[in-house]
Amino acid sequence: MKVLVIGAGGREHALCWKIRQSPLVREIVAAPGNDGMRGVARCEAVSAEDIAGLVQLAERERPDLVMVGPEAPLCAGLADRLRERGFLVAGPSAAAARLEGSKAFSKEVMAAARAPTAAFNVFDSAEDAMAFVRRANRPFVVKADGLAAGKGVIVPATAEETIAGIRQVMIDRVVGDAGARVVLEEKLSGPELSFLVFTDGERVVPLAPSRDHKRLRDGGQGPNTGGMGTVCPTPNHSSGHDREWIDLMIRPVLREMKARGAPYQGVLYAGLMLTRQGPMLLEFNCRFGDPETQVLMLQLESDLVPWLAGMARGELPAEPLKWREGVSVCVVLAAENYPGTPVRGAVIEGLREDGSREDVVVFHAGTRRDEQGRFVTHGGRVLNLCAHAETMDEALSRVYRAAAEVRFPGAQFRTDIGRPGDE
Predict the structure, then answer these.
(1) Each residue's pLDDT tens digit, 226-265
(2) What is the pLDDT of residues 24-78, one digit of tens each?
(3) CATH code that applies to domain 327-405
(4) Do residues 284 and 100 lie in contact, with contact meaning Cβ atoms separated by under 8 Å?
(5) 2-92 CATH fold
């Protein structure tokens, strides 16, 4: 098979790395890809948000399978456009991708499906939202309704901070038009985890749960980010948890989406919080997570390609997914000033000429080669340093040893990935 992978980050590098291991695959094309993944894919300079350009690329390359990594092209209808032209696409329709594209729609679906989730209110007016908070006189989670690249959620500690968050999102538009509408959600407490499933529209097959660390700094401090590191699987997990979460949250939502004429087919990511009252749904994403994918691909023993093709065809493989023993971890190296406007062009040292290392798996997220052929920073999250080992301590030791040796000016990373506490 020839496989076309859409996207440019660490998630797409990890997917290409895993797909390359399949005996079913002869060639991988990445659009646009990045300079660090050229060892596993041929990169074509077409933006992941250039829908017309991606359709033209697919017409020219004639891939046997298309894997869409990011949410933006899915929400913009890329999978629909490609399917209309006869391509096999692993990714949901635009109608189904609204589960991520609109937080308000997603919460409405959760409520209709009676899936456990925090109470919420939706506001199109900043004044109305702020008046609601003043009357309640307590903090609420502020969520921008639209796509915000993982930066549209504010978790305030007070009512005053909630009002400031509403002002940032709806008036200052720190996440652009995504903040034209907000969801105010009751605050929950408990450990979070990422629970992904493969679904062909009927069958649901769980992936190993992982735990993302969203805050920039150790101890769960600092601003929210797209994710600073992950571990997989989560401690004390059992298959009984998978069945509970699928029956309680996933299947009811899939039934509700089908009833609305938008059946879901593809990877579905559920962000969960394990509260004292039981598991609660925080959000849905319509694709593989980032940086969850990086540890999932290291942990997955099965060939990924039949599962991607099965989702695309509407018939998942009959055999179960197989997982490696042990633990996989990922630590993100971020650029100076991330999650604000990241500093670009800083020279990266400590990598081999091909951008890899001997002791860990390196997935490139925000890098490029400069005129001298050196890898330099070219995005917020720059590198994903990943390792698999029998124990979490061993995997973390490898990754943090590499993190101390891979250097660029202003590099930021957390030193407590995988440790108990506030993620």
Answers:
(1) 899 999 999 878 778 999 999 999 999 999 999 999 999 9
(2) 999 999 999 999 999 999 999 999 999 999 999 999 999 999 999 999 999 999 9
(3) 3.90.600.10
(4) yes
(5) Rossmann fold (3.40.50)
Query: Would you state the pLDDT for residue 235?
Result: 82
User: What tokens appear for 197 in the block?
Assistant: 């499933």
CATH 3.40.50.720, domain 119-185, yes or no: no
How far is CA 152 from each of CA 23, 76, 166, rounded to the nearest angstrom? 40, 19, 11
Question: C-alpha dihedral over 229, 231, 234, 239, to 10 degrees?
Answer: 120
Query: What CATH superfamily classification does 192-313 receive?
Result: ATP-grasp fold, B domain (3.30.470.20)
**In 3D, which of 106, 9, 109, 6 has the Cα closest to residue 65?**
6
Using a cut of 0.85, tell me whether the model's pTM lies above it: yes
Q: Which residue has the tokens 């490898």?
A: 398
Domain ranges of the chain: 2-92, 119-185, 192-313, 327-405
Task: Tell the burial category of 341 from Cβ atoms under 10 Å away from its Cβ (0-12, 13-18, 19+).
Answer: exposed
